[in-house]
Write a structure and sequence with these properties.
Blueprint (H helix, E strand, L loop, with lengths): L1 H9 L10 E5 L5 H10 L6 H10 L9 E5 L5 H10 L5 E4 L6 H10 L5 H13 L27 E4 L5 H15 L2 H9 L4 H14 L6 H13 L7 H7 L9 H4 L23 H8 L8 E4 L5 E4 L2 H11 L2
Antiparallel strand pairs: 1-2, 3-4, 5-6
Helix pairs in contact: 2-3, 6-7, 9-10, 9-13, 10-13
Length: 321
């Protein structure tokens, strides 16, 4: 008898019916309102009994806002527990390798997870609140265009509706910190490079490499140029500061007086130009030992490498003219 009463009072409205029912709890919504919404959706029989259960289990005021997937086969205790734990519906959001902050911003806005003004403010907040440790800070902070550039790890994330822009950026920055292993830091020290410099170089490799097997070779070219104090001459760094990054690179763009322009300024730019993946970071840390100093793109996306300027010019004539 007691079991039957409990089932009628707190048991599932429709046992065996696992069809998904969506429930949205707004921030600050009361238990009374939540119970009423559950009843209107046919998820509980009596909103008052739901409120009583939440109170006697100590969860009053602890039901978390968000979007939930429930069913009529769930009991009142099971529903209440899910809401108290905040087991909200999650949506996958993929940030591809090689995206810069502007592209990440556009993706988050397009997916409905960010407002442009709030995201701009969040970028400034995260950059100054200590989320990024000192070892990731740029050596020339006044010259970087975006402090978080390169450190929002490219990956597939699971976000819930209602997540804040600050929480999103913190999750992405924390994912980068988690991916940064002690071995990587040790290898960077062996190369005489800061982590920021490694990520900056990796971001250029990410943009230049189209073939997986060429990442380490391209890295070797850039390491050779850095060692010889030659300008890196990466078109990717020019595109980073162009008003139309997808437009053609002319002699005018290559001559732009911008610290990110590696045709004009030797060495690495002040900071990364995109978020590199682990493969590019590994390539930056472990360049192929080569005597190549030049490369140019071929129509199939691969590159022709050269040891001398004469060889390089011949490749340019062959593949780009």
């Amino acid at each position: 008898m007691a079991t039957a009463v409990w089932l009628v009072t707190f048991g599932p409205v429709r046992p065996g019916d696992d069809k998904t029912v969506e429930l949205y709890i707004a921030p600050g919504q009361t238990t009374t309102r939540i119970g009423a919404d559950l009843a209107s959706l046919g998820l509980v029989r009596n909103p008052g009994l739901f409120r009583i259960w939440v109170q006697v289990t100590g969860n009053a005021g602890k039901l978390k806002a968000g979007e939930y997937q429930l069913s009529r086969s769930m009991s009142v205790p099971r529903i209440a527990a899910k809401l108290a734990r905040g087991q909200v519906k999650l949506y996958p959001v993929t940030i591809p390798e090689g995206y810069n902050v502007a592209e990440i911003t556009q993706t988050l806005i397009a997916k409905g997870f960010a407002d442009r003004d709030r995201l701009t403010q969040a970028l400034a907040t995260i950059a100054t609140n200590g989320t990024l440790p000192a070892e990731l800070q740029p050596e020339r902070p006044a010259q970087v265009k975006q402090s978080l550039e390169g450190f929002l790890f490219p990956d597939t994330y699971s976000f819930h509706r209602g997540i804040t822009e600050v929480e999103i950026l913190r999750a992405m920055a924390n994912r980068f910190k988690a991916a940064l292993t002690p071995d990587m830091k040790e290898r960077a020290a062996e190369l005489g490079m800061s982590i920021n410099e490694v990520v900056t170089l990796a971001s250029i490799i990410e943009k230049e490499a189209r073939k997986e097997e060429e990442r380490a070779v391209i890295s070797g070219v850039f390491h050779n140029r850095l060692r010889l104090r030659m300008a890196l001459q990466s078109c990717a760094t020019v595109r980073y500061v162009m008003k139309d990054p997808a437009g053609p690179i002319t002699d005018r763009e290559m001559a732009m007086d911008d610290v990110y322009n590696t045709y004009v300024y030797p060495g690495l730019p002040p900071g990364p130009i995109c978020s590199p993946g682990l493969a590019s970071i590994h390539a930056a840390l472990y360049p192929e030992q080569t005597d190549y100093l030049y490369f140019c793109a071929k129509p199939d996306g691969s590159h022709a490498f050269a040891r001398t300027l004469a060889e390089h010019n011949a490749n340019v004539r062959k593949y780009l003219q």
